[in-house]
Amino acid sequence: MTAPPAEAVGIDVGGTKIAAVRVTADGAVAARARCATPRRTAADLVAAVAGLVARVRGERSAAVGVGLPGMVDARSGALAFAPGLEFARAPLRELIADAVGLPVVTDNDANAAAWAEYRLGAGRGYEHLVLVTLGTGLGCGVVVAGRLLHGSHGFAAEASHLIVEPGGPLCECGSRGCWGETASGAAIGRRGRAEAAARPASPLARLLGAGPPDAGQVVTEAARSGDPQALAILERVGTLTGVGLAALANVFDPAALIVGGGPVAAGGLLLAPARAALADRLHAPGDRPPVPVLAARFAGDAGAIGAALLAIDRFP
Questions:
Q1: What does DSSP assign to residue 210?
Q2: Parallel, antiparallel, or unpaired: how do β-strands 104-108 and 61-68 relate?
Q3: Of 69, 264, 268, 304, whose CB neighbour count within 10 A is largest?
Q4: How far is CA 185 from CA 35, 138, 302, in A?
């Protein structure tokens, strides 16, 4: 039996940037690079990915994994839909493989992050788990019996459009109260700006007015400092996070639920209300083992590391 590749390159294509890492079989990052995300054409995106691969690959790099921000066809590896990109369906696995001259695996970016947590992160030792990432949107990956759940076409675990707040904010999909619109990192920022507009003399309003453009990060840091408005925002977002987690727990019966993304830096300020909401809504809680809600181990590198590990595991 051929040994797995000693190293692989992992690519995480985000809405604004592409991150690349060279990863060893034990998950160590040996090199990294990044660039802005070209959104207009598939050819531009492929060229950017190929350039990053050339920058980080080593002599032992035997494959490339790519996490994509949308729906990926499980059979062909083609990108079927990505709301942050301007081009339609594109055979990205084939195009990238031709450009870099290495075997390529493509998958949804949240699936890649879930694989990183399953293999080497907070989910290690759990054969059944659900990962939710709170970022610009809300991503989800599900591992069942040690394998990623892809569904019939590769489009499984698109949990962002679960309705968790009926009548809530309007989502780009046309519904109101979608999970990704109410409990993502961006949702924290939107709630913070709304609070600041309602109370322009408040400390939170002053922080948002003087701080960086990432309002969600400002709110999270303010909550950690004890700001009451920020604390209330994180409690609400944490509760809605738990509402969605309970729905997934009831459907998939995981051994663990893992939450990643920038807001997790708030720790219990976000996760405690999430755990409480989960406990309130978990079906038959007295007749099943508890389902832990864990903070993800990997931060911004999760998608890229997971993509590399998918390539290492796929191409022995």
A1: H
A2: parallel
A3: 304
A4: 22, 8, 16
